[in-house]
Design brief:
Elements: E1 26-29, H1 37-43, E2 51-55, H2 58-62, H3 65-75, E3 79-83, H4 92-106, E4 113-118, H5 120-135, E5 160-164, E6 176-181, E7 186-191, E8 199-202, H6 212-231, H7 255-277, H8 282-302, H9 306-318, H10 322-329, H11 343-352, H12 362-380, H13 387-391, H14 398-408, H15 410-413, H16 422-431
Parallel strand pairs: 1-8, 2-3, 2-4, 4-5, 5-8
Antiparallel strand pairs: 6-7
Helix pairs in contact: 4-5, 6-7, 6-8, 6-10, 7-8, 9-10, 9-14, 11-12, 14-16
Bound molecules: fe (ii) ion.
Fe (ii) ion binds near residues 225, 322 and 326.
């Protein structure tokens, strides 16, 4: 059980938290924001003759997006090297290759600036590369024990700018990088304010090429951040940090995160159908990118919870995409098991998702959130109908998934508004096998 930071934990010494804090990169958003990259770098103190590394993947080079970014940087007088080896759901080895490349090219000092361009994978490789070049050693030094050495990052390093090309992960503003550990079927996160970018530049013109399936799946991740952030513990029901520096990065919901959640749920749920069915609709794409950003500001500050906790063991074992795993698990977790934590709050979620709740009792209205969400997924027509459809998962796999969730995901379960035992987790996985026929 991971409720060590809860005021109701049996052995706490501190009172409830009274202070909240928001830390964000600079954020630049809008159509053709890429044209302001040079200005952004200069504003971060990078001189005109500086040499930077652009971390991305081959697909984004092939479709010409990387060339467009590079042209803007070169026009502003910057010299740029492209490393396009980022892999989907990147492993520690994948980041090691990038770090090796930097040290071969530029020595231990590395580049003058870093730019991560792409989906969450490219962004996490860029974040981790800058951190390890600046702090020295290798990736494993900064991964939690027992997988790694558990050392803390102490320096941020030269400016890092992140440009997402999907509307989903929120990695461009988050203080976390997620890496998979080959051969172990686990993922590990490096979580530190030193890994956070200095600036996020969000330009929706780069998102129109994302295929319908990936558009839908990344949107479900974004919607998950928004709803999980809206329904996690309030910050002042958690234990006060012993000093300001030790406040956890997922620190509970506040009036500010709730505002962002509300707007994100509205933007994402009312634009995702258009973005999936007509990818060239720049207005819908822009609303999705903004919704994903707002969802991340909310959820990745307040804290993602049970759904994300259960998604990692599934993704690790079956190599499913993060977004589709979140999509499949949300009905049974956030909008199922968690409803009992605060039904009134879920009535609000149901209404934000567009459900009609007039004349219904509180509990019935709260359950409409799940129905409305499932209907949205069915409309998108590219989301698996449950864990079974996602990866052939059956009753036999549930015990392993439940025990992995409870054993390895306390960082996220701590944020869940209802306690979760291993038996509970098994029941919830069972519930998620089939979301619809
Ligand atoms: Fe996520």
């Amino acid at each position: 059980m991971g409720y060590d930071r809860s005021v109701s934990a049996p052995e706490h010494e501190l009172g409830p938290e009274t202070v909240w804090h928001l830390q964000m990169p600079q954020i630049r958003f809008g159509r053709d924001a890429v044209e302001e990259l040079g200005y952004q770098l200069a504003d971060l103190g990078v001189g005109g003759d500086a040499h930077g590394l652009l971390v991305t993947d081959e697909t984004l080079v092939d479709i010409g997006h990387v060339g467009r970014v590079r042209d803007h940087l070169e026009d502003a007088g910057y010299d740029v090297t492209v490393w396009d080896g980022a892999e989907r759901e990147p492993s520690i080895e994948n980041v090691d290759h990038c770090i090796e490349f930097v040290r071969e090219q530029e020595g231990d000092a590395g580049y003058d600036f870093y730019l991560g361009f792409g989906g969450g994978s490219c962004i996490d490789v860029a974040k981790t590369t800058r951190a390890v070049i600046e702090n020295g050693g290798q990736v494993l030094d900064y991964i939690a024990e027992p997988t790694g050495e558990g050392e803390a990052l102490t320096e941020s390093g030269p400016p890092l700018i992140l440009m997402p090309t999907t509307a989903g992960t929120g990695a461009e503003i988050s203080p976390v990088a997620i890496l998979s550990v080959e051969d172990q079927e686990i993922k590990e996160g490096i979580s530190s304010n030193h890994i956070r970018a200095d600036a996020a530049v969000l330009d929706p013109t780069f998102t129109t090429t994302l295929p319908p399936e990936m558009t839908a799946k990344t949107a479900m991740d974004a919607l998950g951040h928004a709803i999980e952030g809206y329904t996690t513990h309030p910050f002042d029901s958690l234990l006060r940090a012993s000093d300001p520096g030790s406040r956890p990065v997922y620190a509970g919901r506040t009036g500010l995160t709730e505002m962002f959640s509300e707007k994100a749920i509205d933007l994402l749920s009312s634009n995702v159908r258009t973005a999936v069915h007509n990818g060239d609709d720049l207005e819908a794409r822009s609303a999705m990118l903004k919704g994903a950003l707002f969802g991340a500001i909310a959820g990745l500050t307040a804290g993602a919870s049970l759904c994300h906790a259960m998604a990692y063991p599934v993704g690790n074992r079956y190599h499913t995409y993060h977004g589709e795993t979140i999509a499949v698990l949300t009905p049974a977790t956030t909008l199922g098991y968690n409803v009992a934590s605060d039904p009134e709050r879920f009535v609000a979620v149901a209404e934000m998702l567009g459900a009609e709740t007039d004349g219904l009792g509180t509990r019935e209205a709260a359950d409409r959130a799940r129905q409305e969400y499932v209907r949205l997924q069915q409309d998108l027509n590219v989301i698996p109908s449950g864990l079974n459809d996602l990866a052939g998962i059956t009753e036999e796999d549930i015990d392993w998934l439940a025990s992995q969730t409870v054993e390895t995901q306390q960082r996220l379960l701590r944020c869940n508004p209802r306690p979760v035992t291993e038996d509970d987790a098994a029941d919830i996985f069972r519930d998620a096998l089939y979301n619809w026929e």
